[in-house]
Amino acid sequence: MPEKTKRLVKIILHYTGGNVTEFSRVINTRQQYVSRVLKPLDGTGNYPRDLSVIEDGMKSNLKDLDFDWYLTGKGTMILSTVDQKNASSVGDNKTIQNLSEALLKANTANQNLVEQNGKILDRILLSLDALVQASLADRAKERSSGAVEHLPLSGKTTPQPLEDQKDK
Question: How far apart are CA 142 and CA 49, in angstroms?
């Protein structure tokens, strides 16, 4: 096993207790890719050499990892607190930028929804107004024709034509 791959195994052990699936999630890489680079190629005994996807994921997500140690084997695997703060500030700036972009997109989407909801509400109010106007017009016609007596809505009786009530 190449030295770099051995150091990768140590990193996986350190961060996830050897759980390749969890490590893949931590560095935002497909689990199959990490598993593949840890095993020799079919029948050759050679290990894959291209670790760039894993390396990019480690650089982006393992802020306390001394990447020079991973590449060379010199130094310690974990950065000191001072080194972590320096590495973290670069990552923090990237995170802030990503969050700002996401917030801007969410704000734009929210404004679009508010506009759409306003248009829908306007249509509902127009329809409601038309229904009220039609209902008022119907009542006015009924009252002017004198064809129906309007009884209170709280009783169980329904409006009766005036002619039927005269016969009673």
Answer: 90
Q: Can you give the pLDDT at residue 19?
A: 93
Q: 50: which residues sit within 8 A by CB, 6+ positions away?
A: none
The pTM assigned to this predicted structure is 0.47
Is residue 166's pLDDT more than 60? Answer: no
pLDDT, average across residues 16-21:
92
H helical segments located in the chain = 3-16, 20-26, 31-37, 52-61, 67-72, 81-145, 162-167
- The Cα 134–Cα 140 span in angstroms is 10
Give percent above pLDDT 90 in the chain: 20
Q: Is 45 left (phi over 0), alpha (psi -120 to 50) or beta?
A: left
CA 165 to CA 142: how far, in whole Å?
A: 16
Give me 86's structure tokens: 């320096």
DSSP assignment letter at 147: -
